[in-house]
C-alpha cells in the first residue's frame, strides 16, 4: 500500500469529444500503476468507453456502476461498484453506464446537485493514491460533479486543430463556478495531444496554450496508431508495446504528474523505462 496520507483525484475533462480524455485515463492509469501507485478509474461517461477497454465485462452487463453509486451511494454500494480484476494490471474500475445519460433529472432533485459524487466517493479517501475520473464530452451536471469531487483537472487538448480552443473559456468559467463548492480544485495541466512540433499549426497552438494557460505539461503526446490498436485490444498502449512512442510519453507524463503533486514514485521498473527514453533522445 502506498505511503500517501490521502487520495489525489484528477478529473480528465474537455467538453469536446475525441480529444483523448479516455485514452489519457487508460494510459495514465497504467503508467501510475506501473510506478507502484494504487489507481482507480471512475468512468463518468455514458458512452462508457473507458469501461469497454479497462473492464473485463461489457458495461451493459454490470449491475452496479457509477450510476448506482450516484443514485444510492451507500458505502456498501460503492464497494460493490469497484472492480479489482480488470484488463489493466493494478488498475481498479468503477464502470460507466449508458443509463448515465438519463441521470441528470435525479441529480437535479438533490440539495446540492453538483456535489453528489464528492459526497459518495469520500469513503475512498486514503484507499487509493490516485483516482482518475473520465468525464463525458459535455459541460453537463456529470462534469460538474467530477470537478466538484476532484483535487485537480487535466485538460487534453489536440494541437492540430485550429478551432480547438473554441469553448475552452466555457470550461474555465465552469471551473470558477465549481470552485465555490470545491475551493481546492486546481488545473493540473493542459496536455497537448497528437502534438507534432514540426507542424506549424501545432507549434502555433502550443505557443497560444503556453501564453494563456498555466501549467501546460512539459510532456506532450504524439499521434500513434498504437492508441487505437490498444483500445481495440482492450489494453493500454503501454501494455501493448512499452517501446511505442506514446507509451513512453505517457510514462514520462505520469512521472511529471507524480512530482507535481508530491507523490512518491515507488517502482524502479518504470524508472528503467524513463532511462531507455532518455537514452533514445540523446542518441
Ligand atoms: N495519441 C493518439 N494518437 C492517435 N490516436 C489517438 C491518440 N489519442 C487518442 N486517439 C484516438 O482518438 C479517438 C478519440 O480518443 P478518446 O481518448 O476516445 O477521446 P475522448 O475520450 O476525449 O472522446 C480514439 O479513436 C482514440 O483511439
Ligand atoms: Mg471518452
UniProtKB/TrEMBL annotation:
Protein's recorded name: AAA domain-containing protein
Domain AAA: 8-186
Coiled-coil positions: none
Superkingdom of origin organism: Bacteria
Amino acid at each position: 500500500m502506498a505511503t500517501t496520507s490521502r487520495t489525489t483525484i484528477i478529473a480528465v475533462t474537455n467538453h469536446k469529444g475525441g480529444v483523448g480524455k479516455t485514452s489519457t485515463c487508460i494510459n495514465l492509469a497504467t503508467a501510475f500503476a506501473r510506478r507502484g501507485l494504487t489507481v482507480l478509474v471512475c468512468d463518468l461517461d455514458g458512452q462508457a468507453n473507458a469501461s469497454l477497454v479497462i473492464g473485463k465485462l461489457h458495461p451493459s452487463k454490470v449491475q452496479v456502476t457509477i450510476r448506482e453509486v450516484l443514485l444510492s451511494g451507500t458505502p456498501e454500494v460503492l464497494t460493490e461498484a469497484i472492480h479489482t480484476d480488470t484488463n489493466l494490471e493494478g488498475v481498479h474500475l468503477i464502470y460507466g453506464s449508458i443509463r448515465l445519460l438519463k441521470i441528470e433529472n435525479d441529480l437535479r432533485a438533490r440539495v446540492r446537485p453538483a456535489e453528489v459524487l464528492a459526497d459518495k466517493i469520500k469513503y475512498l479517501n486514503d484507499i487509493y493514491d490516485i483516482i482518475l475520473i473520465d468525464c463525458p464530452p459535455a459541460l453537463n451536471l456529470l462534469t460538474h460533479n467530477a470537478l466538484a469531487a476532484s483535487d485537480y483537472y487535466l485538460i487534453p487538448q489536440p494541437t492540430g486543430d485550429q478551432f480547438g480552443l473554441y469553448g475552452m473559456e466555457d470550461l474555465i468559467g465552469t471551473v470558477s463556478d465549481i470552485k465555490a463548492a470545491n475551493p481546492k480544485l486546481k488545473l493540473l495541466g493542459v496536455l497537448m495531444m497528437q502534438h507534432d512540433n514540426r507542424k506549424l499549426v501545432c507549434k502555433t497552438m502550443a505557443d497560444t496554450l503556453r501564453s494563456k494557460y498555466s501549467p501546460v505539461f512539459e510532456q506532450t503526446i504524439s499521434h500513434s496508431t498504437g492508441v487505437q490498436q490498444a483500445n481495440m485490444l482492450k489494453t493500454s498502449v503501454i501494455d501493448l508495446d512499452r517501446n511505442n512512442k506514446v507509451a513512453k510519453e505517457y510514462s514520462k507524463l505520469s512521472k511529471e504528474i507524480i512530482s507535481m503533486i508530491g507523490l512518491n514514485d515507488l517502482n524502479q521498473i518504470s524508472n528503467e523505462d524513463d532511462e531507455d527514453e532518455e537514452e533514445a533522445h540523446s542518441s
